[in-house]
Amino acid sequence: MPPRYQCHNLANGWSWRLLGANNRTLARSVRSFTTVADAVADSRAIADRAEEGRIDILNENGTMWRWVFFLDSEARAISAGAYVRRLECTRAADRFRTWASRAQQLSEPAVFPALPRTAAPITEREAPGARGIRPLSSSEPLRTPPWNAVTGRIAM
User: Fold this and answer.
1) Reported pTM
2) What DSSP line would sit under the chain, residue for residue?
3) Which of 101, 93, 87 minimizes the C-alpha distance to 67?
4) How far apart are CA 127 and CA 122, in angstroms?
5) For a tag site, which of 14, 105, 124, 135 has the least CB within 10 Å?
6) Contact, 29 vs 17, CB < 8 A?
7) CATH topology of domain 4-138
8) CA 40/CA 91 separation, integer angstroms
9) For residues 52 and 73, is the Cβ–Cβ distance under 8 A?
10) What's the Rg (C-alpha) of the chain?
């Protein structure tokens, strides 16, 4: 099946998600919408402007990585899950940008029951620094534990 957008009926409104060809969720909307038409309109806006948006790679509490897609300085899409490695997160963000504009839009959105959210949504009031999530500047070195080359283990 080709990559596609789907709309879901959540407990607090409507949301969209982008599914890959393997049926795994590549991205989801940051916020929920009052109507399904609003969710569809937002997914179409993402598809139309995927190339011009900004993607930030964020570090959660020093252990996990997540990407956020911004249009006009507003968070609009977020990775479906967190990643252990920054490289995995960066590759997932690249896949999102590649497939967001090519994904199939449904003329009549499929309606699905409420899905469990795997991560707390970023609301309009939250800044990237909220909940321990902060952007990693390119000048800031990654903190890795000291490695003992002789034993092949982390030095304690």
Assistant:
1) 0.68
2) ---EEEEEEETTEEEEEEE-TTS-EEEEESS-BSSHHHHHHHHHHHHHTTTTSEEEEEEETTTEEEEEEEETTEEEEEESS-BSSHHHHHHHHHHHHHHHTTSBPPSS--EE-----SSPPPPTT--TTGGGEEEPPTTSPPP---EETTTTEE--
3) 93
4) 8
5) 124
6) yes
7) PH-domain like (2.30.29)
8) 26
9) no
10) 17
Listed in sequence order, the residues at least 6 apart from 147 whose beta carbon sits closer than 8 Å to its beta carbon are 153, 154, 155
How confident is the model over 56-115, as pLDDT tens digits?
999 988 889 999 999 998 999 999 999 999 999 999 999 999 999 888 776 655 666 555
Nearest Cα neighbor of 20 from 4, 39, 6 is 4
Tokens 């909940």 appear where? 131
Cross-strand bridge partners of residue 83: 65
